[in-house]
Amino acid sequence: MYALLVLDIQVGLVHGPETPWRCDAMLDTVNGLMDQARRAGAGIFLARHIGPAGSPMAPDSPLTRLAPQLKLSGNEVVFEKQRPNAFAQTDLANSLRSVGATGVVIAGMKTQYCVDSTCRAARDLGFDAVLIADGHTCSDTAALQAKDIVAHHNATLHGPFCQVIKAEDWCF
Question: What's the DSSP call for residue 167?
Fold first, then answer.
């Protein structure tokens, strides 16, 4: 059984100064995945990346709130993380196991940081990992455009770290 893990779709990233590539399409994809997971009775976990108190990423900062575009039902598990890898220093692995999940479907932000780190860690912890090819994004960097970062990670992660599947081809 697979659970859905949505990473860091927060106000500060979605509405920040660096516009995420294909953000509206990614949000639609994630909302569709959440609907599908609900219908299948799969667990839905949403990570909020936070920083120290008093910083712009403090747990109570408006920037760390989940983006209002997410269509939440109230039955999701929302947890805080302080590292790119959503399993590091959190109870995520135990929480997934407690709902019977042997696999995790990963979507969210940012591709080259939290999405990458979490995909790599999931398999090391014994979970089958699926990355939704069109369900993650980032912003352009000085070195690469976001579309190239996403394409690179889809190609690099597929196989040794996870399956990479388009949302339309995934079913919980």
Answer: G
8 Å CB contact between 155 and 113: no
Which residue segment(s) compose the domain that 69 sits in? 2-169
> Mind listing the pLDDT tens digit for each residue in 21-54?
999 999 999 999 999 999 999 999 999 999 999 8
Residue 95 CB: number of other CB atoms within 10 A?
15
What CATH number is attached to the domain comprising 19? 3.40.50.850
Total count of domains within the chain:
1
Q: Report pTM.
A: 0.96
Report H helices in 19-164. Answer: 23-40, 92-98, 116-124, 146-157
Exposure of 17 by Cβ count < 10 A (0-12 exposed, 13-18 middle, 19+ buried)?
exposed
Give the residue ranges of DSSP H helices in 8-107: 11-14, 23-40, 92-98
In DSSP terms, 128 is beta-bridged to 103
